[in-house]
Amino acid sequence: MKSLKKILLSLVIAASAGTFSAAALAENDPGRVTYKPEDAIDMVVGKIQVAIDGITKGASGDEAAALIKAASDLSKEINANDKVDNARAKANRKLKSAATHAKESALQEAEQELKSAKEDFAKLKSLI
């Protein structure tokens, strides 16, 4: 009888743990907009291109850094799987490096970092 109680209790615990998933019940915040990974990647690549164009047209270091920060902030919306997230983090480090160069008014280096980051973000689609 004692072992039967243990078995039944184990089954009840296993069944309850298997049927309730907080992740499955999670919902978006009412004011938050979520994007498909492909759409988020396209938007980040577009923001990076805006930053490159801004540097080309003669933006100051602070203006370029603000444009780069917008792309970096948007890159957090890319959420598909672990491979994509690791590659996104790697590409995001290039954006941070470009922002650092822009703040130091080294705009040529920032532009090169942005071009490299743009290629890396475009390659993320193949990982989805």
Short overview:
By secondary structure, this protein is mainly alpha-helical.
Q: Overall mean pLDDT score?
A: 86
Please identify, by name, the CATH architecture. Up-down Bundle
Helix content: over 70%
**What does the main sheet amount to?**
none
Low-confidence stretches: none
Whole-number count of domains? 1
Shape: elongated
Measured by DSSP, the beta-strand proportion falls in under 5%
Protein model, in words:
There is one protein chain. By secondary structure, the protein is mainly alpha-helical. The protein has one domain (33-127): Four Helix Bundle (Hemerythrin (Met), subunit A), CATH 1.20.120. Helix content is 75%, strand content 0%. Helix 3 (37-56) runs antiparallel to helix 6 and helix 5 (82-103) runs antiparallel to helix 6 (107-123). The mean pLDDT is 86.
Task: Name its key features.
128 residues; mainly alpha; Four Helix Bundle (Hemerythrin (Met), subunit A)
